[in-house]
Amino acid sequence: MAASKDKKKKNIFQRIAQTFKDVRQELKRVVWPSKDKLKTTSAVVLVVIVFFAIYLSIIGTGGRWVLEKIGFYDQVDPTETTAAVEESPVAGDPVVVEDTDVAEDTDVAEDTDVAEDTDAPEET
Alpha-carbon distance 94 to 84, whole Å? Predict the structure, then answer.
């Protein structure tokens, strides 16, 4: 216990220097590959990278082709009216109802009294 009290903590620069010394000693102990082994493994890595690049390109192109064939990328004209099918209340026969939310010139002056009532806050 007395020995731990006598040890003084090193400052930041001494600790950084010690870390670099330790790294350098560790790198001296590493068994580095020969040039032939390095060339062989590098070639294998490059071949695998090229193979998977080609493979993924084929998969991506095939997926895009399939999506184009099923119409995934087709643009829908937003000004078209859409039709909704509702069941008839009488016999269950389908009734086609057209949605006419297309931008048209409508007279808004008729609804001004309603709009004024909703804008004003209510007092209680």
Answer: 10
User: Tokens for 29?
Assistant: 């102990």
What number of helices (H) and strands (E) belong to the chain?
4, 2
Mark the ranges of the chain whose per-residue pLDDT is less than 70: 1-7, 80-124
Structure tokens at 81: 């009216």
> Is the alpha carbon torsion for 110, 114, 116, 118 positive or negative?
negative
Per-residue DSSP letter, 31? -
Between vectors from CA 119 to CA 115 and to CA 121, what angle results, nearest 5°?
A: 140
Of residues 94, 67, 98, 68, the one with CA closest to residue 83: 98
Q: Tell me which H or E stretch contains 95.
A: strand 94-99
Look up the pTM and report it: 0.43
Instruction: Round to whole Å and give the CA distance between 88 and 32.
Output: 82
User: How confident is the model at residue 116, as a pLDDT?
Assistant: 52
Name the residue among 80, 61, 58 with its Cα closest to residue 69: 61
